[in-house]
Design a protein that fits this description.
mainly alpha; 2 helices; 0% strand; elongated
Length: 58
Amino acid sequence: METKIDWKKVIMFIVICGGLIYITESYLMSFGILLLLFVVYDFISKKAEQEKQNNEEE
C-alpha cells in the first residue's frame, strides 16, 4: 500500500500545533492534538476514497 502525503496538510497541522504550543505552553498536549489531527484526516480521506470507489462501481 502506497501512502501519499499531502505536504500542505502537514504544514497546516504543524502551524496549528505551533499555535497550540504558544497558547497552552504544553508540548505534550500539542503533540497529542497533532496526532489526533493526522488520525482524523486519514480516516476522513479513506472514507471519502471508499465512497468514491463505490460510486464508480454503480
